[in-house]
From TrEMBL:
This is 3-hydroxybutyryl-CoA dehydrogenase. The record marks 139 as: Important for catalytic activity. NAD(+) binds at residues 8-13, 31, 91, 96, 118, 142, 273. InterPro entries: 3-OHacyl-CoA_DH, 3-OHacyl-CoA_DH_CS, 3-OHacyl-CoA_DH_NAD-bd, 3HC_DH_C, 6-PGluconate_DH-like_C_sf, 6PGD_dom2, NAD(P)-bd_dom_sf. It comes from Parapedobacter indicus. GO terms for biological process: fatty acid metabolic process.
Amino acid sequence: MQHISVVGSGTMGNGIAHTFAQFGFNVALIDTQSTALQRAIKTISNNLDRQVKKEILTAADKVSTLSRIVTYTNLNEGVKKADLVVEAATENESIKLDIFRELDRLCPEHTLLASNTSSISITEIASVTQRADRVIGMHFMNPVPVMKLVEVIKGYTTSVETTNTIITLSRKLDKVPVEVNDYPGFVANRILMPMINEAIYTLYEGVADVEAIDTVMKLGMAHPMGPLELADFIGLDVCLSILRVLYEGFGNPKYAPCPLLVKMVTAGKLGKKTGAGFYKY
Ligand SMILES: NC(=O)c1ccc[n+]([C@@H]2O[C@H](COP(=O)([O-])OP(=O)(O)OC[C@H]3O[C@@H](n4cnc5c(N)ncnc54)[C@H](O)[C@@H]3O)[C@@H](O)[C@H]2O)c1
């Protein structure tokens, strides 16, 4: 494993590219939008500066990390040499299925295909390829260079060999991989999203205001961030789409997204990335 291609250069894609490059891998960072790629390189450079300031990396490490990342708007060019592709494009099932159909067609035979999806079935993603044994979930947490967890999701057809390769690789990135099976929301979001949704219902029903809800959870439960601030950080559109996957996947009304969340997403108040959500940025 030396050549890693990352598809999608948004919040997660730039962090995944940063982390692989920091640990010596050659990274092809791919996005359909060249402006997204430019923004990603700027973000990676700023985040590397922060690591240099904290003495996690040297100034020379920053230069060599950046030199290992090459950007592409053309998928074919970007995956030619890939040993592994990590897809981190928009959380939308049809976008992801199209990307995996293309990846399967374009990538060398040996290439493993991973998705960073928060909630879409790995088994379903694998089913549109001719290499279902080599498709897996590699769910990094935000911000990727900082957070230790990689939730490794085994689809119904993922081989033991693929799983073991991804576990070994995650450890090379100084991460802690945890193996889970492919059911809606996996583990992380199956537990996190109902909590965030309940916090939004608590606001919606007027039980308390935004700051009160977050303060209760921060000081009362020792959470580093309140659930509403965390929702802003993740992106309210991402939270809504994960809740819909849980709701549809389990057919259980307890996962129904709060109407306030739906309304905020419709209004374009998506959280930190749009400058406003439960808080203003
Ligand atoms: N935001 C989080 O905290 C978080 C955490 C864990 C996992 N995830 C998952 O990571 C994935 C990416 O989320 P994000 O928050 O980085 O999204 P984002 O909206 O910040 O970035 C998505 C990027 O994908 C690009 N894209 C869309 N279609 C594409 C295509 N066909 N080919 C190449 N690029 C394409 C977009 O231009 C955009 O730059 C999603 O599956 C999400 O569920 C997000």
